[in-house]
Amino acid sequence: MSDNWVGKSISITCLDPGGVFQGTISTVSPEAITIIRAFRNGVPVPKPDTEVTIASANIVNLELIPATPSSNLATHAISKPTPIKHPNFPAASVQEIGSLARIPIPNISRHVFGKASPSSTGGASSIMNNGKFYPTKQFENGSGARNASKPMDIVAPMKNGNGSYKNERKKSRRQYNSKNETFGTPVDDPMMDEDFDFEKNLALFDKQAIWDEIDATQKPDLLRQTVPMQRRKYRHDENVITSEPAQLRQIEVDYNSSRDYVTAEGLIVPSIPLIVRNRVQTAAEALGLTWERQCDILARGTTEVALQLLGGGRRLVPNNSHQWPTIVVICEEPYNDKRSEIGICTGRQLATQGLKVVAHVREFTHLSRSSRELDLFNATGSAYTNNVKDLPTGVDLIILSVRSAILTPILLKWISESRASVLAIDPPVHGISQVQIKCSILPILPLDDINRHTCGKLYLCNLGIPDKFFREAGIKYKSPFGHKFVIPIHLVD
């Protein structure tokens, strides 16, 4: 008996908050009924092929929806409702309509679910026309002929100059449909929970192919051949032939350089041996450019790179005082090592910028020379320690100023756990063991055989040494710095 209802259109009223479902019967059983091409509260489900199964316990009322033929009894202007892009329900024939009208609705529920439905043949039912539901009148006296009223557009009594309401009705219908499409979606619509993938759909759209197709169809073939293609117009910054910067060699050495580096402007910077660099520095010291002055200049360049790594003007502003950066400077014995003095001097200059700086120095074994850098560092209010356990957590930047390529295991462990960027001041050519250096700053000229993978990005600092001392060391020198005191250099492939 249940097979007789398969393919019929039905309206099912469910318990709250289920609402009213309309659709075509797919399967029927005493426990549930399954419909396809379903509508819920007049809105089609997101996928037309989705099967909706409704348990018999949730059904309050169900009614068959017969299809009615077009009626000629309407005397008013009838506007056809806008169809929804959805598969239409199969229309029943006149004989089927008559037979369905003579079948009492309670019999369906009695055969299918074993209980009577509150609806009867004398009550109101609804039919579907092009995917929308409209009220209909029941058959009179059980006959097969049924008078159905079509939906009408109720418009204001406006007419144009020729006495026709046609244009006004079209305009009113367009306004109604536009408003209904915008504000007619219920808040519980399942489609509102689905996110639209803009990137995926944009990737499917080939704009160039569309433009080519438009250009191909705008002109006849003969005209396309005779009329030259319009030249593309470029902006002032696009109408330039891009090319690699010219590489100029302004610095020359009297010996074979192992590696060449290039600046952002394309200037070649050769590498030199350590003994040649020491010769340049010693000659400058002999004429008054003492080590302390060179130390201050290199520390000033290191401070500039450190401020860039910390975010510069985007972070170091009064509004970000709640996340002010912390810096740790790691060096050896400042009284016995010149390179450690550069690190302490850098920490002092960073502290005078208002940053929190903590220095880690090795315990003093003996004093081989006098130095005031540590005393100047203490004068800023910053602290130094000999114990790794006293170093702070949540560090933003670590500055390494050591000569040795091997650090103590406890110091290596702290550096690894801090996960902060590491800036090295004139590191060993092969880097520091088990330390990932982000960038390094070098004085005068880069050394031979420096490893860019272990030393990170290389910066060159101008110490203000006159060209005379470069010439005495066998170097024909011309400054590559231009308007900067610190410049990045890259290895020439």
UniProtKB/TrEMBL annotation:
InterPro entries: DFDF, FDF_dom, Lsm14-like_N, Lsm16_N, YjeF_N_dom, YjeF_N_dom_sf. The keyword Cytoplasm applies. Residues 184-220 form the DFDF domain. It comes from the Eukaryota. Residues 138-191 are annotated as: Disordered. It comes from Phlebotomus kandelakii. Its main location: cytoplasm. This is Enhancer of mRNA-decapping protein 3. The keyword Cytoplasm applies.
